[in-house]
Amino acid sequence: MRTKKWDLPYILLFAALLIGSLVMFVPYLWMVLTSFKSNSEILTSSNHLLPQEPTLSGYRKVLGEVPFFRWFLNSLSTSAIVTVGAMFSSALAGYIFAKFRFRGKRLLFVVILATMMVPFQIVMVPTYIIISKLNLVNDLSAIVIPYLVSAFGIFLAKQFIEAIPNELIEAARMDGASEFRTFWSLVLPQIKPALSALAIFSFMASWNNYLWPLIILNEESKMTVPLALVFFNGQNVVNYNVVMSAAVLIMIPVVVIFLIFQKQFIKGLTMTGFK
Amino acid sequence: MSKQQVSERRFIALSLTPIVILFLVFSVIPIAIGTVLMFFDYSPLSNSIPFAGFKHIQELFSDKMFFKSLGVTFTFVIVAIPANIVVTLLIAMGINKIHDGFWKNSFRTLFFLPAIAPLAGSAVIWTTMFNADSGVVNMAFKLLGLPSVNWLTDPSTALLSVIIMTLWADIGYNIVLFMAGLDSIPESLYEAAELDGASKWHVFWSISLPMLSRTMLFVFIMTSISYFQMFPQFQIMTKGGPLHETYVLALNIYDQAFSFMNMSYASAMAFMMLIIILILTLIQMRIGRSQWEH
């Protein structure tokens, strides 16, 4: 950088960014503070940001009266399976598209890419019909199976695998390694950065997905965390402190995970340019 | 065929078959069904699927609610996308000017944080923040001596409220993308401009912006595609109301398909959405390409 001094424009810029990022933080602060209020306090005292009589009643209700742990586990397990599945299938297909020749390859790849452009609204009704024909409505596998393959993941893996020199792969074959072995122990380690980016995106997309679980999961015991939040919010008498406590319990792990993997995440985002 | 070729063939077939089947069943076939379902009367309760011809498309053109939701969607998109791009570009340029590594990272993290939260969760939190009686937004208004506003229940502010929430929730992505785009502009260009005595404004218009056109095109297309489909915050914060002022197309399609079980009609609407998104993407690509050549 050229100028490294604290002149007035720089101070103003810094102050503006500081205020901006604090404003960005307000909803989180609001969420945490409100979760420690009682419901009557939320509804009556509209002038206090801080809880006047801090209470854990919201948390007690979330953890004690509803199967919150179950919902958490539903989200965690389905997201984990989707992540592993999408990573594996994307790398495998990416490898084949990058390094093999077969008839119809180009067409197949273009078709897979084209599916990325189609809005979910087009496929949601037909996918619902297919899932109900498979008798998987209200089954957690309904939010797993369709996401085991990822067009974006295949595209990403292919880009990275194309950069691996062919000689390296030929050498492995010469040594008598099977095709799958070459893929597993030679190709996979080479594309670790792409795979970790893909893992973060798949996990988050699955963890945060709202519309598809809303359509396909209607039983209380099958809900995922985003549905749970809305479940609390949609009751006849809304218990705001319960909603906020649930929100805290759902958002905080995501924030912590993000802060830990921040570097890979930002790198992955700029590397791929996708959400 | 050599032994090598045989094992290659087998590997391709074994690996690709399950992947292609999943794609067929959950992507290609749904897209195919999705584009023809509007020509039939499909009902989940009935076994027969009678041909309906253009009935559902005719319905579409006489459906006031369809046009209403189309209008709301366009208003949302036309306000939210430019607002998003301007805000994120400004913030990205601002953060990029910070020379202290710690603060640069911290600012980026703080602006990005909302983007990783579940949109449904953020929508629930903002619903309580916009609450007219007990929300923090009106608390702040009171502090500033401003009258309280019924943010989500007043037809004139409901859409604006959802737009504010949407911007909060996802400006982080574009900030990171613009920051990366700005980083990739060679420093020598700026140095040359400085030697020529170019004004800051001039540098922005003739160096930063043109050099960002690739990032810009990408950001525009991705943001448009995602904003046209936005759903959770509309369903959670306002349920499309008041007076359908926030009844976006995505919500209308969801209601038709899963509340009223008019799945064929919903497909007709979804198809319109696809056409609109395709046309807009093509226009953006055309404009973008002519800028690159420039």
Your description of this structure?
The complex is a heterodimer of chains A (275) and B (294). Chain A contains 13 helices and no strands. Chain A is an all-alpha fold and 275 residues long. Chain A has one domain: MetI-like fold, CATH 1.10.3720.10. In chain A, helix 4 packs across helix 7 and helix 8 packs antiparallel against helix 9. The model of chain A has no long low-confidence stretch (mean pLDDT 88). Chain B has 294 residues and is mainly α. Chain B has one domain: MetI-like (MetI-like fold, Orthogonal Bundle). Chain B has 13 helices and no strands. The radius of gyration of chain B is 24 Å and the shape is globular. Chain B starts with a helix and ends with a helix. The model of chain B has no long low-confidence stretch (mean pLDDT 91).
Short description:
Chain A: Keywords: Cell membrane, Membrane, Transmembrane, Transmembrane helix, Transport. The complex is a heterodimer of chains A (about 280) and B (about 290). With about 280 residues, chain A is mostly helical.
Return Rg of chain A in Å.
Answer: 24 Å
Largest sheet of chain A: none
Helix and strand string of chain A, N-terminal first?
HHHHHHHHHHHHH
CATH H-level homologous superfamily name of chain A: MetI-like
What percentage of residues of chain B falls in helices of 4 or more residues?
A: over 70%
Report the principal-axis shape of chain A.
globular
CATH class of chain B: Mainly Alpha
Q: Oligomer, anyone?
A: heterodimer
Largest interface: A-B, 90 and 98 residues
- Helix/strand class of chain A: mainly alpha
CATH fold-level assignment of chain A: MetI-like fold
Q: Supply the number of structural domains of chain A.
A: 1
Task: Present the secondary structure layout.
The complex is a heterodimer of chains A (275) and B (294).
Chain A: H1 8-35, H2 39-44, H3 57-65, H4 68-99, H5 105-114, H6 120-133, H7 151-162, H8 166-174, H9 179-190, H10 192-208, H11 211-216, H12 225-233, H13 240-272
Chain B: H1 3-36, H2 55-61, H3 64-97, H4 101-116, H5 119-129, H6 136-143, H7 158-183, H8 187-195, H9 200-211, H10 213-228, H11 232-238, H12 249-259, H13 263-293
Helix pairs in contact in B: 2-13, 3-7, 3-10, 3-12, 4-7, 5-11, 7-10, 7-11, 10-13, 12-13
